Amino acid sequence: MANGKVYLVGAGPGDPGLLTIKGQLCLTQADVVIYDYLANPLLLGYAPEHAEKIYVGKVRGNHHLPQEQTNALLAEKAAEGKQVVRLKGGDPYIFGRGGEEAAYLKERNIPFEVVPGVTAGFAAAAYAGIPLTHRDITTSLALMTGHERPERKLSSLDWEKLATGLGTLIFYMGMTNLRMISEQLIEHGRSPKTPVAVVQWATLPRQRTLVGTLETIADDVVREGIEPPAVIIVGEVVGYRENLRWYDNLPLFGKRFLITRPRAQATEFIYKLQQQGAETICIPTIEIAPPDDLQPLDDAISNISDFDSLILTSANGVEAFFARLAENKKDVRCLAGIQLIAVGPKTAETIEKHGLRPDLVPERYQAEGLVEELLAEGVEGKRFLYPRAKVVRPVLSEGLKSAGAEVVAPVAYQNVRPTGKEEMIRHLLSESELDAVCFTSSSTFENLLKMFGDELKELKGRAEFFSIGSITTETIRKNGFEVALQPEKFTIDDLVAAMVEYYQK
């Protein structure tokens, strides 16, 4: 049996973009991922589908799996010859018990490696607009855990030195003892007017930052309902926050959107929304599947030289067509001399990934605009190959045929409704946890409607519906729902820009 190995990987503070490149590489090669409460579950998406994923998280008052059993689990899986990733929030060696786990593995001669992560204290300060050191104020800082039983009065800390000997103090897991921490610092010489920031859910769109002083912060936290997980930052550097805050000033900060398109196609959309501060939850209402019968498409590909033009109207259509091209032992050379048409810029971009440039992209990114421009060129007597979805509007085929063209339109793929998504979506809608649901095609809405039927109107609550374009909007409205936002141009970039403008107003 091959030797197993354990990688103690720091998952960072929450924002999945703060995972290190090496941490991501470890996840892609993992056989087992053992993760905790503060590791963003989105990071599990980097692990292979076959990888076993085991939750051992801890929250206050509820230890899902005792530390001793976690240690044993790491050793057990590695002894089976597996590559094990222990995914820990923040950095494994900063209040993460990574040292205990490493020592346990070392005693048993099990190979391990430590992959550092961005620790929560540093990230919380950066995302709250607080430089932890500043040459005009302080060049020293200390990291401490405030997680100790009240009756022990955090006895392991030298309060006198902490209070007066260091500039910036960062307390992890100190919310339960915040009042005691404040009192001890004041009692040992720190000014009651010293600024304090409490940063909850650091680096995530739900982040909340509360600023007070040592004499007020404990009461402020109770009043505002700030709870763990949170980091406490004490020091004059907190005063820079008002000028340097950037994250919670982003235009979509604090907004939560449901993305309904397939995850593989939603990556760019999600990234652009997160760049604007939004929280995105991707629960696809459609999945892309092969057609029931591939023979008509294969027959068309076999006679590809008989066509004058190839029309592709979606990224899915592009990928499905080129996949069948390869399956039929052909490559892009067989498209020489054939006019290549894309319905819009994103379809064109997908085509370009295959080494080709479309000859025509219409000004209006929909079937009507495409038909209009083709008719202006003249289509009588021409043969068009149009690999399509199973269910499409007849606008394109009928428009060209009525002008004397021949259109061969084999099904290249179909949209199917995924199963097992209803309860997740129901919870988000019923608990009013969403600001909006984003639809990028008619089928994403139609499948959501099929999931819930008439119940959708009641479930929708305060969540608004955003649509990428006029066809999707028409589908939503004809079913009795309002559309709060639709961009002038029907692309993801324009949809994101319209969302930013919508909330800025």
Helix/strand layout:
Elements: E1 5-10, H1 21-28, E2 32-35, E3 52-55, E4 58-59, E5 62-63, H2 67-79, E6 83-88, H3 98-107, E7 112-115, H4 120-128, E8 141-145, H5 159-165, E9 168-172, H6 178-187, E10 195-200, E11 208-213, H7 217-224, E12 230-234, H8 241-244, E13 256-259, H9 263-275, E14 279-282, E15 287-289, H10 295-302, E16 309-312, H11 315-327, E17 339-342, H12 345-352, H13 367-377, E18 383-385, E19 388-389, H14 395-401, E20 406-408, E21 411-416, H15 422-430, E22 436-439, H16 442-452, H17 455-460, E23 464-467, H18 470-478, H19 492-504
Parallel strand pairs: 1-6, 1-7, 2-3, 2-6, 8-9, 13-14, 13-22, 16-17, 16-18, 18-20, 19-21, 22-23
Antiparallel strand pairs: 4-5, 9-12, 10-11, 10-12, 15-21
Helix pairs in contact: 2-3, 13-14, 16-18
Pfam families: HEM4, TP_methylase
Domain Tetrapyrrole methylase: 5-217
Domain Tetrapyrrole biosynthesis uroporphyrinogen III synthase: 271-497
Name the poorly predicted regions: none
The helix content is: 25-40%
Please tell me what the overall shape is: elongated
Number of strands: 23
Instruction: Report the average pLDDT across residues.
Output: 92
Number of helices: 19
Q: What is the distance, rounded to the nearest whole angstrom, between the alpha carbons of the first and last residues? A: 62 Å
